[in-house]
Amino acid sequence: MPKVVDHEERRRRIAETLRRIAADEGLEAVSLGQVAAAAGISKGQVQHYFPNKDAMLRYAVRTLRDQVERQVAAGAADAPPDLRTVLVALLPLDDESRTEALVANAFVWRAFKDDEIAAWFRAGYEQLREALAALVEAELGLAGLDAAREADLLLALTAGLADAVLLGHRTGDEAAELIDLHLRRLPGGR
Amino acid sequence: MPKVVDHEERRRRIAETLRRIAADEGLEAVSLGQVAAAAGISKGQVQHYFPNKDAMLRYAVRTLRDQVERQVAAGAADAPPDLRTVLVALLPLDDESRTEALVANAFVWRAFKDDEIAAWFRAGYEQLREALAALVEAELGLAGLDAAREADLLLALTAGLADAVLLGHRTGDEAAELIDLHLRRLPGGR
DNA sequence: TGTTTTGCGATACGATCGGATTGTAAAGAG
DNA sequence: CTCTTTACAATCCGATCGTATCGCAAAACA
To answer: How far is A178 from chain B (nearest CA, A)?
Structure first.
């Protein structure tokens, strides 16, 4: 057996470069050549680790989700997770989360056509929904259907606010304030 | 002067074809050749009416906004406009509004890079925001900052729900129900 | 009835795309 | 050392892209 390399590590580095390009210039600027050049490797190497472009894009989505999870986890690192903290952590407030949000947005359209990407979006949505429902239960004393519906509401609201912030329609502070306004009005809320 | 044609009509027809392609296959499938072929005209004719591809895309966005306005106006055609009716009209519930939402979504990323497209998105947002604020004032008796903030909340929530419906995370009925749940909780609400 | 101007089809151009092919250096296996 | 397998670089391919150019038919004006 020849030269030993960490395949997963190579793929991860390529995917990171891909996401950087996608965040900076959009998915349409992502090509095998561009990714290779930006990563400082040859086109052949990219081809060596991904059978085709779609596989590369799908991998980039998969590892993006890991990043988002880490982002939320970091936002609620200290103390037990807090509903407001988690929601605000989903907003694109700093450069890093803004980049992530941009990349996710760039992939949204792909999700309409690519079932595998759609599945990852769906899984991310469900996971977040369940986590939020659990927090709603814990903090507001709601359970079952009510908690689930409140979680849907919160998720939709936060997603809409995140888009508004990305597009510059609202500032991050305004978005956080609006989340607070909504939370204050929840039954059982403080 | 030679053959007389309605330039605006030609451009409108081209833009409609462009949006159809964008809704079906995404913005990346939009090319001069594809648009021309789908519209049953020659590539040269498309070039005759638009100086370049970007101008064509911008025109398609501009006339898309007209469509959305007509959609909302039609949704609230009879009787004085009703807050709930307007919000639900913004959801992608039928094929037509789903197509519009898909096209708008396809253009969102362009708005990050193209200032003219961004301006149209911004203008649409502000217009909707003001209309909603007026409805909030009329129906809930709120005024000024409160009405504006409630409008922001409603707009973000509806946008988030629209995306969730588009991605198949929620059904249209569920989204409408969630809007009702939120409205029921507003101060001054019925 | 020329002349001119516009509408638009046809085609050519250079760039870039995703993917396939080929060549080669390196490193464990025997 | 030899052989085989892997990692990767280089290059080529056909297709498609946006844009430029050329040519001509139709129509209003002279």
So the answer is: 6
Q: What is the pLDDT of residues A76-135, one digit of tens each?
A: 666 678 999 999 999 999 999 999 999 999 999 999 999 999 999 999 999 999 999 999
Instruction: Say if A2 falls within a structural domain.
Output: no
User: What's the CA gap between A170 and A163, in Å, rounded?
Assistant: 9
Q: Which two tokens stand for residue B73?
A: 């106006």
CA A121 to chain centre: 9
Residue B13 CA neighbour count, 13 Å, CB half: 14
With CB atoms and an 8 Å threshold, state whether B167 touches A26: no
Task: Find out whether B142 and B136 touch, Cβ atoms under 8 Å.
Answer: yes
Read off the pLDDT of residues B67-105 as tens digits, 9 standing for 90 and up.
777 766 776 666 678 999 999 999 999 999 999 999 999
Q: Which of A47-56, A133-142, B73-82, B146-155 has the lowest mean pLDDT?
A: B73-82
Rounded Cα distance, B35 and B46, in Å: 8
H helix runs in chain B, sequence order: 7-25, 32-39, 43-49, 53-75, 83-89, 95-113, 115-140, 144-166, 172-184
User: Is residue A1 a part of any domain in this protein?
Assistant: no
Whether A47 is in a domain gets the answer yes
A102 in contact with B at a CB cutoff of 8 Å?
yes
CB-based contact A108 B167, cutoff 8 Å: yes
Please tell me the total count of domains within chain B.
Answer: 1
Q: Give, as ranges, the nucleotides of chain D with any atom within 7 Å of a protein CB.
A: 4-11, 16-22, 25-29
Candidates A170, A96, A33; CA nearest to B153 is A170
First to last CA, chain A: 64
User: Could you tell me the residue range of the domain that residue B64 belongs to?
Assistant: 7-185
**Considering the domain boundaries, does residue B2 fall inside one?**
no
Compute the distance between CA of residue B28 and CA of residue B22 in angstroms, rounded to an integer: 8
Give the list of residues 6+ apart from residue A154 with CB closer than 8 angstroms, or none.
Answer: A83, A87, A132, A136, A182
Q: What is the CATH number of the domain that holds A154?
A: 1.10.357.10
